Amino acid sequence: MIDDKATEIQSIGSQKNPYEHNGDVFENPLFTPNRVTNKKFYIESYGCAMNFADSEVVASILQESGYGATKHFEEADLILVNTCSIREKAELTIRKRLTEFRKAKESKSGRLVGVLGCMAERLKSQLLEEEKLVDLVVGPDAYRSLPALILEAETGQKAVNVLLSRDETYADISPIRLDSNGVSAFVSIMRGCNNMCSFCVVPFTRGRERSRDAHSIVAEAQDLFNKGYKEITLLGQNVDSYYWIDEENNSTITFALLLEKIALISPSLRVRFSTSHPKDITDEVLHTIAKYENICNYIHLPVQSGNNRILQLMNRTYTREWYMAKIDRIREIIPDCGISADIIAGFCSETEEEHQETIDIMQYSKYDYGYMYFYSERPGTLAARRYEDDIPEEIKKRRLAEIVEVQYQLSLQSNKNDVGKTFKILVDGESKKDINFWKGRNDQNKVAVFAKENFPIKKGDYVQVKINACTKGTLLGEYVKD
Ligand code: SAH
Ligand code: SF4
Ligand code: F3S
Q: Which pTM was predicted?
């Protein structure tokens, strides 16, 4: 959802039409240089951070087309849903929402409803032609064609573009920060994924991996810092395979070098990143994290399973031993590093013993936090074609509950270990539960809350907080002067 104010304060895109991108000339048929029309758009995003970042690119394209943002779909001329296909449940939730928007369409003449993102890519014109749920279908690499598609849809034509690209990175589009706290922002550094994990739909919905021009990433981060942002999260499905050739300077930029460039913008700009693939994260990256105080000591390192046979069926291309060695290496180079993981319970043919090995690797890794799911077969993936989804749902759910319980204990223990310590917290807002408390995160990405009292503290400040108590999800502390 969108912060109306955010659209007023942010600068936007190219402000010229037509414009050139990678040698192609693009025309925005709705281009409105002074951006004054009374049309409004509403956008709702699902799925991963990359989808939320994409919605900010879409907002920029729409604003150049004369559309203002609204937080209330009831006011909108254009309702967009940026969708996720990662698990069946995600798609079902979104379908329900699209049905509601279908009804909302009827209450305002000329109102259009569009589906963006991974479900648009996966289902292509099905939502438009067979199910007649939406007027527009736009895949993740086709957002530049949105203005043309809106015009088509307005005249009652089928408006679909789900072409995937090998080079689109939207590098030249300045995203409009939606729903922003003014402190943290996402910056997309690459798109797509070449990994082909057998359970995963992303390579099909997002296409081939490509890295974004490093200069444009640094410029976007610098611009955010100039506007008062204090924390930037670099986003990609597999950030460690970031690779960009700087032809001007005849050099190659790896992820470690990119991290360094962003860290050097200012010591008071925190740098985070997600996601790291265990096969690709290098010592060079770990040393860069250790070298710069402002690169946060936190790594999200999805394990998926702790068993070698299952890891092989998943096509994760590392073994249990390799993964454990990575955990050791992280702890050796960055001793106080926060680590989290994604875990899938009940993948095809998983036995009880193999499930126990997942629990065992969780205990070995001592994750501070976990994102845990039961396997959901996705049509068209390697696993759907090759392996039977043969673990009954109640067993998947029971194994997931066991995994969740283990993670609960690990998170609680990890937080208990922090009681008595003092952390540098970046304040990002008020506690949702109690407005008398500030909320922020420490270097390791743990949420900390502390009483406001009458201290002269504001959002975006770094403060020292001594931890006195905890739950599994939150550290509770008190402000201490430096
Ligand atoms: N690029 C990231 C993850 C992207 S998807 C990586 O490689 O780690 C986020 C998480 O969703 C995955 O890590 C996985 O744990 C989960 N996931 C993906 N496909 C799934 C499926 N078919 N069923 C259940 N969980 C799935
Ligand atoms: Fe999916 Fe694997 Fe790529 Fe992650 S690395 S997006 S899990 S295919
Ligand atoms: Fe979902 Fe697509 Fe992200 S499937 S997790 S929105 S890349």
A: 0.93
